[in-house]
Structures are given as structure tokens and as C-alpha cells.
Design a protein that fits this description.
alpha+beta, six-stranded mixed sheet, 20 strands, disordered N terminus
Length: 376
């Protein structure tokens, strides 16, 4: 959940690994109120390809982490999200969204049911929305214990990630996709989820902030591991067709038109009980008026966020929400929303680049196939 940096006037917060990033030659930039590594000396293309081929190391400690606890916490959280949280088995992770009363997405998040007798949910939310998300939980679920966590969060992504992490945390390589496990090493605790935001196999590791630098340095001792910044993270998630809040998702967008109907549990579709159910139920039954799609501009220049998409007759039929250059495919790619009549792969629309009308082909997502760890 990263994007191009945004300029902010408020003082920037620093990551626990700020000094390490600078020592590694990171170019820093503001994002979601934090001073974040945008790229390192090798550059965005090199970092993207390294992650696809070996293992990229990302600092995502700006994300919000918290625990919601108490009997009935999972059912209560379902009043804010369309995901099947009550059916989540201990040690399992699920992707879902916070919705407003019109079914628009307030944020997307990961929810993990922690093992143990007590009902505890580990939440990971977007950095730009965590203050709003946490306020929403405190307001709407006041009878439950809610504890924000001050921990570092590291992502290790790529085809070599499992072997590399398993050498430091034996057993981590056996965790399945969207499963979670805790590890104790000395006086350090590691919360490990096999998940990520690149489309590659990989892990997200939550650990004490004061232990993060030692752990990251141990990972960097492996020659297959390279530090990766926000720029490559955005390229990777775009190649993988993964939406970014504030760009491809916002309060006007519902999960069905965003291509996230798979995240709405079967029981939830039947029972409802979440914000915006009527709109989402209608979209599930009848199909949405528009859909998030992949876009392939017929130009060397990328189609950027906000670009209008038109039909051959000049009718506005959609807009671009994310766009850039794909290091893996060596060409411009984009995502956006188009009217349903134009959403089939191969459909042709147009946009304007530098005053010229450019053809854009609608394409299936993802652009680069996912390689999540899903053994038979």
C-alpha cells in the first residue's frame, strides 16, 4: 500500500529504521505523514526486477497495527466490514474493507484471528487512514479492548523470501498464504504473516521497533536481499493489479466495482448487516455500472491518474486511477474505471496525452501473474 510521495506541510514522522535507510543511500520523500525511502542507489527498475527475481526488503512500519479484543469482537467488526470475520480460524488472515453507509470504501485492511482462548483480532490498516480507522473503531465498538501497536513492520517479498526468512526463523518457510504465526527468538517476538503487496510470494513481519535494525541487517547479509523503496513497491503492486487506497479505492467506490467481490463472504452476502449492503447487494445481483480494469496505452508515455477515458465517438466512459511504467513488461500500464459496456478485455478506449488522442486497450488484471504460496 504505497504510492508516489505526497507533499505535506506537517512535521514528518520517522520510521524506526530511518538511520539505516539513510546509511544505505535511500532517497527519502514524504508519504502519509512519514519520511519514507522512495528508492535506493540502484533505482526503481532495478529494485522491481530484483524483487521479482530474488527478494526485496520493504519497510512498511508506517502502516497502522492494532489489536481488537473481547468476546464477540469478530462479529462486532463485521458491522463495519463485508468480510467473514466471525468465520476466520485462529492463525488465518483475511482481506476486507471498512465501508461507509453508502457502501464506499473508507479503507482496506488485513484482519488476523490470533490463536488462543481469548478472541483477539490483529488489524493492519493503511498509514494515511489509520487515525480515521482507529477513531471509527473506538466510536463504533466502544465495549471492546482496542490497543494500537508501536511495532516495526517489514515486508520480505520475492521467490527467495521463504528460504531466506526460514534461515533466520525456522518454520516460517512452511507458513501458507494468508496464514499467521508467532515466533520467539531470545527476548524478541515476531508476528509473521505470509502476505504482501507485490503479487510475489512473501511475508510481512511485525516486531519490536528497537529490534528491527538488528533483524533487518541480518536479512541484508544474504546477497539475494536488497532494500526496496516506495517507487518500486508502487510499480510492483500496479503490475500485480492490486488497488491502492486514495487512488483506485475511495469513499465513492464500492468493493464490487473495484473487482473485490471475492472478499465479501458468502454468509455476509446472504445476511448483510454491514454498511451499504443495499448498494453492494444490487451490484452483486445485477452487476455494477462500472468496473476497475487494466489499461494498456498505445504509447511510450504512461497514462497517469486522472486521465479521462473516452469512446471512439468522444463519450466519456471512465478515468485512470493509477498509471506508470512497468519494469517487468517494459511498457506503460495503468488501471482505471470504465463503464461496464467497455470493460471486456480487448475493448478499445482513448485518452489524451500531450494534446494527442491515444488508443488504450482494456486488459485483464493482473498484468504480471501472482505467485502466492498455495500448496495443494
Amino acid at each position: 500500500m504505497a504510492a508516489e510521495p505526497n507533499l505535506e506541510s506537517a512535521p514528518l514522522a520517522h520510521l524506526p529504521l530511518d538511520a539505516l535507510h539513510r546509511s544505505l543511500g535511500a532517497r527519502m520523500a514524504p508519504f502519509a505523514g512519514y519520511d519514507m525511502p522512495l528508492q535506493y542507489a540502484g533505482g526503481i527498475v532495478s529494485e522491481t526486477l530484483h524483487t521479482r527475481q530474488k527478494a526485496g526488503l520493504f519497510d512498511v512500519s508506517h502502516m497502522g497495527q492494532a489489536i481488537l479484543a473481547g468476546a464477540g469482537a469478530a462479529r462486532a467488526l463485521e458491522s463495519l466490514t463485508p468480510g467473514d470475520i466471525a468465520g476466520l480460524a485462529p492463525g488465518r488472515t483475511r482481506y476486507t474493507q471498512f465501508l461507509n453507509e453508502k457502501g464506499g470504501v473508507l479503507d482496506d485492511l488485513l484482519v488476523t484471528r490470533l490463536p488462543g482462548v481469548e478472541e483477539r483480532l490483529l488489524l493492519v490498516v493503511n498509514a494515511s487512514r489509520k487515525a480515521d480507522d482507529f477513531a471509527l473503531i473506538r466510536e463504533r465498538l466502544p465495549h471492546f479492548d482496542f490497543l494500537p501497536l508501536n511495532r516495526a513492520l517489514i515486508a520480505l517479498q520475492g521467490p527467495r523470501a521463504a528460504a531466506i526468512l526460514g534461515a533466520l526463523l525456522p518454520g516460517a518457510e512452511d507458513i501458507r498464504f494468508m496464514h499467521w504465526q508467532a515466533f520467539e527468538e531470545g527476548d524478541s517476538s515476531f508476528f509473521v504473516s505470509r502476505s504482501g503487496y507485490t503479487g510475489e510470494d512473501g511475508f510481512e513481519i511485525s516486531l519490536r521497533a528497537d529490534r528491527a535494525e538488528t533483524f533487518v541487517n541480518a536479512l541484508l547479509q544474504n546477497p539475494d536481499v536488497a532494500p526496496v523503496g516506495l517507487g518500486a513497491r508502487d510499480a510492483l503492486r500496479l503490475e500485480a493489479g492490486l488497488p491502492l487506497y486514495g487512488h483506485d479505492l475511495d469513499e465513492t467506490t464500492d468493493p464490487v466495482e473495484a473487482g473485490l467481490a471475492w472478499s465479501i463472504g458468502k454468509r455476509r452476502r446472504m445476511e448483510g448487516g454491514f454498511p451499504g449492503f443495499d448498494r453492494i447487494d444490487a451490484a452483486l445481483r445485477n452487476g455494477p455500472a462500472r468496473l476497475r480494469v487494466g489499461l494498456l496505452p498505445k504509447s511510450k508515455a504512461p497514462a497517469r491518474e486522472g486521465a479521462i477515458l473516452i469512446s471512439e465517438s468522444g463519450e466519456v466512459v471512465g478515468h485512470v486511477t493509477s498509471g506508470g511504467f512497468s519494469p517487468t513488461l517494459q511498457r506503460p500500464i495503468a488501471m482505471g474505471y470504465v463503464a461496464r459496456a467497455f470493460a471486456a478485455p480487448g475493448a478499445a478506449v482513448f485518452t489524451e496525452l500531450r494534446g494527442n488522442r491515444i488508443g488504450v486497450d482494456v486488459a485483464p488484471l493482473p498484468f504480471v501473474a501472482h505467485r502466492y504460496f498455495k500448496p495443494n
